[in-house]
Amino acid sequence: MLFFDGPVENDALTAFVREVPFDSNLGLTNLFGRQEVETNTVDFAEIVRTNRTARYRSFDGRVHVSARDTGSEKRVPLLPLSTSLNMGEYERLQLQFAQLQGGNQARLARAVYNDAEQLTREIQNRVEMAWGDALTDGILTISEGGLTGSAGVADFGVPANQKTTVGTAWATLATAPVLSDIQAVIDTRVDTNGNSRPGYMLTSNLQIRNLRRNKQVIDAVFGSTGGRTQVRLSELRGLLADEFDITLLNAYDSSFDVDGSTVRTIPNDKVMFLPADLDNFGYTAWGVSATALELVNSAKVDFSFEQAPGIVGIIDKGPSVPFRQQVITDAVALPIIADALGLSILDVAP
Asked: Residue 48 above 80 pLDDT?
């Protein structure tokens, strides 16, 4: 149950965890915006736009009747995620607190805040990994915490022809036609979606190194290879901007500890092409957790339903034996790709 007489009020702890900044290595979460929702579902329409034209006609001639764009409504349920720490340090400090007859209150509060900050970063890291999963193939697949089958799958509807594999691995520096591969991605986007050209390119440091050392790239920058073995990063960025009007984002190589194993957020053989308008492409949706509703309904803290969406931090007294107290962070959150047509994914290691 929620612990309301601790050294930190639960509403104050929640306010604290919501101010914990996202680390700079959370490049995906930081790249996109956030929205707070109160229904724990996100509804959005995928519209397939066709570049139709009007028709000339003779004076007094019949007016052309156009066709409507087709689309499908999608509903994505948000999923809960949480983490906790048993308050071993807190309990030791409580004993000291009792012995000192209340003289250690500040250290008790500091122990709670320290745990809450660590747990908040774990929530943020898991959301970042979910973004990597979604961008890798346009489908978010979560198979943990009892989620199985379709319950943990959100298919955002990226067209199949925008998920492709190159013919020659980009690691084959002498012959891989990397610029032709990029042009093919753009051509497919234009053919499928009209003038929906990619504006950003996101990939790993490994693939950026392959691009810098690729013969086709070196020839495009210098006119001929001429004994050169690579181009500068600034020259690569300039080439991509000049040739394709694409901005190469900083190399993305984040990884996290998952049950003792280091797991990359995005495989280093993937290249993602994102639209120029990132604001409308996607966002992290933060919903209302059951814990937040407990705070709203408790009448013991100043916490309204309008404040409910987002991460919450609480102190919990569990009924287990031996008796334990925990700091818990809880949230309902999911990455949302609202513009699936704006994502192209290229596998460069066939």
From this structure: no
pLDDT category of residue 317 using cuts at 50, 70 and 90: confident
Structure-block tokens of residue 170: 């980009």
- φ, ψ at 203 (rounded to 5°): -160, 180
Helix (H, G, I), strand (E, B) or coil at 271: strand
Question: What contacts 269, CB < 8 A, 6 or more positions away?
Answer: 204, 206, 207, 347, 348, 349
Place of tokens 């929205």: 35
Domains assigned to the chain: 10-48+74-156+283-337 (3.15.30.10)
Name the residue with higher pLDDT: 231 or 324: 231
From start to end of 11-112, where are the E strands?
Answer: 33-36, 41-48, 70-77, 80-86
Chain position carrying tokens 């999923």: 79
Highest mean pLDDT among 53-62, 178-187, 189-198, 329-338: 178-187
Is 217 within 8 Å of 179 (Cβ atoms)?
yes
Non-local (6+) Cβ contacts of 280 within 8 A are 338, 339
CB of 32 closer than 8 Å to CB of 286: no
User: β-pairing, 270-275 with 282-286?
Assistant: unpaired
